[in-house]
Design a protein that fits this description.
It is built from 10 helices and 7 strands. It has 248 residues and is an alpha/beta fold.
């Protein structure tokens, strides 16, 4: 798994986990706006962009790999994830709390979709469209990809194999809250966009209800793309989260 790091090696570690179909570059607007006093750890998840050579096998296997990354960093990390990466953030908090100080969970589906087989069948039939530049460019608009990151999105979209697409989406739409989430001792912030589909807002509430003491925020005016749709607001929110007290 390709991993980029930024900032002083002795600074508090912050792991940033991107969503499906994008890659570590989605955090560039955040990185540009954060004070340079944290060590940012930014992987390309398996099957995506510079990690495309290793297909996405499962959430469990990816969490194992991320646990190894955090083990090498040393110390407890703050972990923020978006969409697919937000589910992985929940799993890291549940399964490796000794390595995780606090989490920010942005737009995580936590209620299984109805008829996942039908969804995956339709996705498999249209998977080839993702490699076409015109289709990817149109899709980028719905994901709030800024113009300066459009080439990165088109490249990443073309790099995602059908196997990775179906596996990652299958894991995503079947995701449920892991039992260990309720026992996570660190600070947890859960965000969803006001304009996301209803089941996404419901998922945020499910995660909030399952973890006593967690914070829930429905972000006004936002759809499924908070970090890229409102980069200035999001950077301020992350800064406040990183500087807040770690334990609940």
């Amino acid at each position: 798994m390709h991993v980029e790091t930024y900032g002083p090696v002795d600074a508090p570690p912050v792991l940033l986990l991107h969503g499906g179909g994008v890659a570590g570059w989605m955090w560039e607007p955040l990185r540009e706006r954060l004070a340079p006093d944290h060590r940012l750890i930014v992987p390309d998840l398996p099957g995506h962009d510079r990690s495309a050579g290793d297909p996405y096998h499962s959430h469990a296997r990816t969490v194992e790999a991320l646990t190894e990354v955090l083990g090498k960093v040393g110390g407890r990390a703050s972990v923020a994830g978006f969409s697919l990466g937000a589910q992985l953030t929940v799993l890291l908090a549940a399964h490796a709390p000794a390595l995780v100080e606090r989490v920010m969970v942005v737009s995580a589906q936590a209620k299984p979709s109805a008829a996942p087989g039908l969804t995956l069948g339709l996705l498999g039939a249209t998977a080839g469209l993702a490699s076409r530049k015109r289709f990817a460019t149109l899709q980028a608009r719905t994901l709030f990809i800024p113009d300066e990151l459009l080439d990165d999105y088109v490249r990443t979209s073309a790099s995602v194999s059908k196997q990775t697409l179906l596996t990652a989406v299958g894991e995503n739409i079947r995701f449920t809250v892991p039992p260990g989430w309720a026992r996570f001792p660190g600070k947890a912030s859960i965000l969803a966009g006001e304009r996301e589909r209803g089941f996404m807002r419901e998922s945020a509430r499910v995660l909030h209800d399952a973890l006593p003491g967690s914070e829930l925020e429905i972000v006004a005016g936002c759809g499924h793309g908070i970090p890229l749709q409102r980069p200035d607001w999001f950077a301020q929110r992350v800064s406040g989260w990183l500087n807040s007290q770690a334990t609940r």
